[in-house]
Write a structure and sequence with these properties.
Elements: E1 6-13, E2 18-19, E3 26-27, H1 31-37, E4 49-59, H2 66-78, E5 85-89, H3 95-105, E6 106-107, E7 113-116, H4 129-142, E8 148-152, E9 155-158, E10 163-164, E11 173-174, E12 182-184, E13 188-190, E14 204-205, E15 213-217, H5 224-230, E16 237-242, H6 253-264, E17 268-273, H7 286-294, E18 297-298, H8 304-317, H9 321-328
Parallel strand pairs: 1-4, 1-5, 5-7, 7-8, 15-16, 16-17, 17-18
Antiparallel strand pairs: 2-3, 6-14, 8-9, 9-12, 10-11, 12-13
Helix pairs in contact: 2-3, 3-8, 6-7, 8-9
The protein binds aspartic acid.
Residues 13-15, 60-62, 91-93, 117, 119 line the site of aspartic acid.
Length: 338
């Protein structure tokens, strides 16, 4: 008989283990772990074995912070050699930020890390939590995907490509610019050609700190005053959400001048499209070329979550602004299409 695989589950909080309270759903200590013990399918002999680490403070993922990402990654590192794979139970609100962050931080990963959660708590009759937990365990049992993934709504996504799309749907996530790694229908349909190749290098954890970063979404009629004020602070990076393929009003010389001056003094300014599908291409229109000439760098087809966490990661890893800009525009772990 094959040896049963061993999976380490980290429970951080989220709807999955919540209970109703006067102020709405809230996480409850010990509750999820008790409920899981009552699921007969988890005890079947062809299921993998699991161990749960429940965090002392369970959170709604709206409260997630980069310090918490460091803790999750560190907890995976500590038991990495004892387990075949890892599941992180997490709220859906910021799940795609966590999967993106972990994908950069866990350098040279060779084992699967699946982050999942649910739209309805495990105790609810119509809960989706049983399905997400059981299927995540079975995916790790069947496939050694060497990636940080997000499982939701019957699909396994590359973690740094996924986005929360719906507040209410059981298929709450999508991966607009990259196909799912596994579709969990009546059978598992896995597209192994899409998986990343396992690294031969040793696993390394790159912890992250937050640089002083500003997120700015362009809109018709936006005043330059906002940007001027921002540039009076010690800001290190700005993500500018632009129109279409990465365009901004080039008939606003003040805007272009401010951006150019900021790039020249070493602020990293990223051009991220407001569109969900497709890639930034600053050569397509004169309104995009103006931004390239000002010194902005491209986010290509990265998600906003990958864009943010990649900046955090690179500012924590590299001192040189030139290196940060170079690496930001390279594919580090499947987050952008080259
Ligand atoms: N607010 C919840 C959270 O992100 C939503 C969820 O888990 O689905 O923790």
């Amino acid at each position: 008989m094959n040896k049963r695989k061993k999976i380490f589950i980290i429970y951080t909080g989220g709807t999955i283990g919540m209970q109703p309270s006067k102020r709405g759903y809230t996480p409850a200590a010990g509750f999820l772990t008790q409920q899981l013990a009552k699921i007969p399918e988890l005890q079947y002999p062809d299921m993998p074995l699991y161990t749960i680490k429940e965090y002392a403070t369970l959170i709604d993922s709206a409260n997630m912070t980069p310090q918490q990402w460091n803790k999750i990654a560190n907890d995976i590192m500590e038991v990495y050699h004892e387990y075949d794979g890892f599941i992180v139970l997490h709220g859906t609100d910021t799940m795609a930020y966590t999967t993106s962050a972990l994908s950069f931080m866990l350098e040279n990963l060779t084992k699967p890390v699946i982050v999942t959660g649910s739209q309805l708590p495990l105790f609810e009759i119509r809960t989706d939590a049983r399905q997400t937990i059981i299927t995540s365990l079975l995916i790790i049992n069947n496939y050694a995907i060497p990636e940080v993934c997000l499982y939701f709504g019957h699909q396994l996504f590359r973690g740094n490509r996924a986005r929360k799309m719906s507040v209410f749907s059981f298929t709450a996530f999508a991966s607009p610019n990259f196909p799912p790694l596994v579709a969990a229908g009546t059978n598992f349909d896995s597209n192994e050609t899409l998986w990343r190749k396992p690294s031969r290098k040793k696993l390394k954890l790159q912890k992250i700190n937050e640089p002083m970063l500003v997120w700015l979404r362009l809109f018709p009629g936006m005043s330059c005053d906002i940007l001027r004020q921002i540039l009076q602070t010690p800001v290190q990076a700005i993500v500018l959400e632009t129109f279409g393929s990465g365009n901004a009003p080039d008939n606003n010389p003040e805007l272009i001048k401010l951006l150019k001056q900021a790039c020249a003094r070493g602020v990293v300014i990223v051009n991220l499209s407001q569109c969900l599908y497709g890639s930034v291409d600053m050569t397509q229109y004169a309104t995009g070329s103006a931004l390239a000439e000002a010194g902005l760098i491209s986010s290509y087809d990265m998600t906003p979550e990958a864009t943010l966490t990649k900046l955090y990661y690179l500012f924590s890893k590299e001192k040189s602004i030139t290196k940060i800009k170079q690496q930001f525009q390279q594919d580090l772990c499947g987050e952008l299409t080259v």
